[in-house]
Description:
The structure is a single chain. It contains 11 helices and 8 strands. The protein has helices at 10-18, 29-35, 39-47, 62-75, 87-98, 111-119, 130-133, 139-152, 167-176, 185-192, 195-211; strands spanning 2-6, 24-26, 53-56, 79-84, 103-108, 124-127, 158-161, 180-183. It is elongated. 50% of the residues lie in helices and 16% in strands. It is α/β, with parallel strands linked by helices. It binds erythose-4-phosphate.
Amino acid sequence: MKLFLDTAELDEITQGVGWGVVDGVTTNPTLIAKAGHDHETQVKKICGLLGNVSAEVVSEKKDDILVEGRRIASWHKNVIVKVPLTPDGLAAGKVLAGEGTRVNVTLCFSVNQALLAAAIGAFIISPFVGRVDDINEDGMQIVRDIVSAYRQQNITTKVLAASLRGPLHVTEAALAGADIATMPFGVLQAMFKHPLTDAGLKRFKEDYLKSQEPKPAHGAEPAATR
Ligand code: E4P
């Protein structure tokens, strides 16, 4: 499973890329607004750091989505155009996919919606886990079901587990068979954490330092007997 960052913050992306563990980035209008720069500038900067950068349209009608999607796709070869799971979003997504643009269909909450995205040749389907958990339903079960349906139908659209809220979601997404998990930077940081790693590191350091302490020369009398 590939690990993507769900952020538009350049310092977070730079760190994740520096660790060698991040393969892509998902943005949305909320994340771009939080980063505080205009959409095009920010997406181009992110594309300069790594491939697989999802950038979302805000238009609602097919023709408008097409114009906006083509404009976003022209920004950089690393861009994946994100369209909403609506009839207009999918109609425009189909044209974009036919033109060779990689399309990420977002705001997916059911297997049927995922089947519709596959039908237009989407590169990625993004089921939202956390937003379903937020309404007291099991968001990860939708990921499991989409993966299962896609496997049974030999569908190659990649399943991207989105709206992840914590490290356990990442583990569950991997066990569900998701192709990609996108996560906030804090969740990526949390993936590194284990108290036994910290304790082990501390002990190795202490033992190493002890081994470097000077030892009495072989055969020398202990100082106390002199
Ligand atoms: C990513 O593609 C989605 O836009 C994002 O994961 C949504 O996350 P949220 O539900 O935490 O806003």
